[in-house]
Every structure is written in structure tokens, then in C-alpha cells.
Write the C-alpha cells for this entry.
Amino acid sequence: MIHVKLVQLGSEIKEYALETGANVAQLLDAAGETYVDGSVTRNGSTVCRDTVLYDRDKVFIGKATKGNVDPFEVTFVRLGDTSISLPAEDGYTIERTLQQLPESEKGKFFRADGKAAYEFRVGGGAPVELSYVISRPASGNVRVICSQRVKGN
């Protein structure tokens, strides 16, 4: 059994458990997605339908356009709750990244007036605003720590 993450811009990152030796076509079938030549990458390299997948691979579905840059993961960590990983591209702000969440999940991060329900710290640094532009990491993913806003923050 292998575990593979599937990333598609505009939706949450999903993980699939597949049989050892499964290929890209089988992953896309399990996800209900259609293969488009040139739009699927695995760990940064373009792959075809028959490409065999391995445990912990990350498969990205993007648009088949010249110059596409693979998205990277942004993990939002909230104390006492599960973390949420979302895809982002260069130039995405914290707000733009969170807007990919389903409406039912957005309420966890935004108040009714549209303002942030949390204070955000990228990589444990100083607090940043929703308009903070997330930079592509040299490796791995970006961690955003979400802490409750209190009077004076």
C-alpha cells in the first residue's frame, strides 16, 4: 500500500491510499479527475498516465500551458485542531490561499465581517496580515501558525 498526495489548484490537498505499483491513471480515476497530457507532474517532473507512483509522491494537476510553475504546499496550523494544507503559487497571499477552502471551512479563518479570525505567523516569525505574500520555500512546504487574536494583538 502506498500513500500519494494529489494537489489541484483551487481545492484542498487530498491523500489517496493505492496498491503498490499503481500509476497516475489509477490515481486520477480514484480522484474522479481526467488526464490531460502535459498537465500532470510528480515531484516536479511531468508524467504520463502510465507513470508508476511511489509512497509519499506528490502529484500536481495544473493547466497544460507553457511556463507553468508547480504549486507548493502551505500548511495552516491551529492549536488544538488539525492542520490544513492548501496549494499555492508564487505571488499568492495568505488570504488568496485560504480562499480556496470550501465555504464551510472558511468560517474557521474569517469573521463574519471578512476580517481574519487569527493572527498569522509564517515560519514562527513576527505576525503578518492576510495580504502577506507567501514566498516559495527552497524545500518542503510553508508553515503558517494561526493563533487567536486577543485584545492588543
